[in-house]
Protein: Peptidase M61 catalytic domain-containing protein
Organism: Thalassotalea euphylliae
Amino acid sequence: MLALVVRVVLWIALLSSSFTLSANNILITDLQKSEDNQWSVTYRSKTPIQSIQFHHSPDDSRFDRWQLLDKGYVLRKVNGKDSVFRNDNTRFTSVSFALTPTYTHLPKSYAPFAVFSDGSILLHSGRFFACAVLCRGNEHTWYLTLSAPPSERIILNGQSAYGKVSWYDDNDGRKVFVGNTEVNDTRYYISVIDNALPEEVTSALHQFLPKAITAMAERFPKLPRKPMLFASFEQTSGERYGRQGGVLPDQIFMHWYGQLKQTNPYDLIWFYAHEVVHLYQGSYVQHISAQDAWIHEGHAEFVAGELLMTFYPEAKTFVEQKRQQAKLSCEVKLSETLVDEFAEQQAYQALYHCGAYFYQLLAQYSGVPDKISFDYWLGLGFKAQAGGQVNKATALAVANLFLSDDDYQQVLDTFGW
């Protein structure tokens, strides 16, 4: 294990010499878990700065869940961004917060912490991205360190280490595990699965995921490395119940919280299928705007249904009901507002429903659902790789290749485009 830690440190040193703060960002972010399970984060600057601005502020939860540890500082909202200042407006070089390491739902974003039943933690690095003074939009890389008690494993980028790790981060960030939940290396993925999850959840996961990964791998470009799967469960008081899934490059993560309830088994498998599809959609989807999220969310919903019917033919009625619900919900929302305004109005579920309905219409009019599941998305990816922006115009241009002129116009008319 010492050799592994040495290799990690060496890799970090080489990486550091390559980047040398070409990150356009002078902050160092230090995350720490103490022996008594307290979490904190400290932001350090080599030169005095006037303020710190957080890169992502989807809601006001930071004001409730982050407690300033240094006197004389204040957390404020400035132009929609959480920002830190000294009360006397003088410059500073560091500031620290105590963190609340429990799950909280963030709108269209990943939770900063997902807690396992044994106390292990899966943290999302992107929640901690911050800039000196202002985030101007050209900051693409952040430097972070993470320290944890020596008895707990840290898993970063698929590698295990103990004590402390450091890394440069980018885009939407990544998930980093801290704790002692068992790690299993299977043929299809490396998994860290909460032992408290019920058997119906884990058995469905292990039975379906290999099939879905195999099916997607046969039609989409091979993943650069074996993905990591994280599945966690945090029991809470009361009747609150929920789940959140997500995908980052080489990572699938699923979190359940509250009082787990019996659900339709196909609904659970659909949840898994949706995330597997995201895994294979390609990294360029990270650059699709929130306004156009229907493009990739709708595709994941549509292909999830196709995967279910492939491996569970008896689920056809369930899939048809889901698709009818998406159609009806989308039609209601379209009678009220435009697709382009869904994200601004925080009507995120409508992005899923109308996105799914878009692909359902493509499959119906083209008569080839299989091509819409795979060939359509590969065509979209080709345009993205060629430098074309992936937005509504791109999605419609590729759709036009699969439809007659009349059917294409039907799609435009349905969505008011």
